[in-house]
Structure formats: structure tokens, C-alpha cells
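Illustration 12: Regulatory protein RecX.
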Amino acid sequence: MTDPKFPKLLDYEALKQQFGEEESATTTQNNPKETDNPSFKAEDGLFADPVKETKPGLKGTRLRSYAFAVLTRKEFSKAELIEKLALYAEDRNEVITLVDELSRENYQSDQRVAEMMLSSQMRKGKGPNQIKMKLKNKKVDHQLIQDELKETDWVQQAYELKVKKYGTDVATDQKLKAKQIRFLMYRGFEMDAIMKAIKRKSDTDFD
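Figure caption equivalent — predicted structure in C-alpha cell form:
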């Protein structure tokens, strides 16, 4: 039987059913007492307690099915996905080859990971330094991080956050200025953007 191509539209329920039933059957044979504790959790795509259970040693279509199930639930960076799959795979080299293919076919994308992280963190009022750190932790390429961050007006982001917290008035009191600076630095903004933001008199003042 030839190796099937990646489907363009993923049927997560079908994958879950196929994968879960196979895993359940294996578990039943090897550990009859664990039949009420299936190793595949649909809610988060993770195997239950890998420390306590025997490493499944997935390979071939079973490894591929698990990779699809994982990606259907959440976006992972390339480095994260390799480490996640390697926990349950028989051969790490097969994992690397599979993830390379997933990346080429755009099922996995560091670009999407960076875009989603940028969007979600901006909604939380986080500045570029915090976002950069989070993406580095995911081992996203440095240049990709820089490209994503430079598309945003961080002075505007800092100004909107300052207005939300302290209002539109420009602080003249040094203690209040220092307080605003510390607040924006804690949120991850750079000093240049902070100073421009706290000095801005209105949303249309870009000096």
C-alpha cells in the first residue's frame, strides 16, 4: 500500500477515532487494567502521562495521524512540534523528516505562529520585547520575529495603553512620568517608543 498524500482538509474526528481506537486496542492487550484510561485525549491532543506509560513508539501512518491531530488543535512552531512528536515516536529522524514535510506543505508554519502570537499579545497590551521573548522561547527564527515586529506602530500601541491607564493628559509631574515609564517598560515597550507615547498630546500628535 502506497503512502497516502496529506489531505488538504483534515477530518479531526475521523483521525481521533481511528487513532484512538487503535491505541485503545493496543492498550487493552498490553494493560487490561488501563482500559478505562485511554492514552489519547481528544480535548488537548496529548497522550496521558507519558512518564507513567510505556512510550508508544509511533511510526509511519500512526505518527502522521498523531501529528495531524496535534496540529488540528493548536499551532506549533517547527521546533516545538519536533519535540512534541519525538516524545511518542520510535525514531526522532522520522519525526524531523515528517515535520519538514508538514512545513513544506504549510500544515505547520512558523509564520502563522508568529502572526498569532503577535496578535494575541498585542490584544493583551504587551510590547515588542515581551513578544520577542515569547517567540524566541518557541525557537522561531530571529529574522522572522524581526519582520513581524517591524510591521507594528509600537509608539501608537504604547500611547493607547498609556491613555487607557492614565488618560490623555501629558504628565508634568516627574513622579507620574516615572510611573508611566515603569508601567510601559514592564509591558515590554522600548524606551524610545515610551518617551514618544507619554509626551504625545493627542492621538494625532506624532511629534
